[in-house]
Amino acid sequence: MPAKNSATAAPHGQRLQLASTTGPVAGKPFEAWSATPLPGKANGAGIVVVQEIFGLTDFIKDVCQRLASQGYKVLAPALYDPIRPGIVLGYDQTGLRQGMAYRAKLPAGAALAEIGACVAALHKEGCAKVGVVGFCWGGRLAWQAAQHLPVQAVSGWYGVGIDQDLDPLPKAPVQLHYGKEDSFAPPAQRAAVRQGCPEAEIHLYEAGHGFGCTSRSDYVPAAAKLAWERTDAFFKHHLLGQSQPNS
Q1: Pick the residue with more confidence: 27 or 240?
Q2: 177 has catalytic annotation
Q3: Band of residue 243 on the pLDDT scale cut at 50, 70, 90
Q4: How many CA atoms lie within 13 A of 218 on its CB side?
Q5: Of 62, 163, 165, 182, which is the active-site residue?
Q6: For position 229, what pLDDT does the model report?
Q7: Which CATH architecture fits 14-240?
Q8: Is 12 a catalytic residue?
Q9: Stretch 133-137: mean pLDDT
Q10: 182 classed as catalytic
Q11: What SS3 string covers 130-184?
């Protein structure tokens, strides 16, 4: 599970102003949460963390801190900024409905353009390789990043609708995590992804949707722990060149 902010793990995150150079929001500034390793602890790689439909929540910031504590430079774009800066929603049905409405208002390609700007910023900061991890809506966007952006590894947690994005196939290695009881990503959807992209590394857990988020009632600690162990090993292998254990 994501570690809480602490002076021994990583410096506190901060908000940065970035701007996309491509897509429907080109030239428009947006905020991104930034977390950096302690001095002398950087491993030379970067990771973009992609939010759920609920916005740039404390959970997403905690994920950033968790990864920064391992030596990664981390950015998490605020995907709703083209609509209005600072949108953060509750983990409830009202928040879900509001998030779906905000997502529908975004120009096509705007979210991926923000992710691309974060990837470019990390490369500019000296990161030799960049990965992407996303949750829920961010899981599908992470998959799209593997299709269209210069990234080297992608981990998607309970991404919904990936079966609709099988062309083109990802250019980067992809790892996907699903709860067996996830009604938003049912077995037929997962089977279509597996059939359409046999190279994808897919893991199933005794859980439902949102099992990795510590702020949700759907949180399943055992499943989240195992998914993080696999995600960590996946990134260490593809971003840092370390051997990946069989899992």
Answers
A1: 240
A2: no
A3: confident
A4: 20
A5: 182
A6: 98
A7: 3-Layer(aba) Sandwich (3.40)
A8: no
A9: 99
A10: yes
A11: EEEEEECHHHHHHHHHHHHCCCCEEEEECCCCHHHCCCCCCCCCEEEEEECCCCC
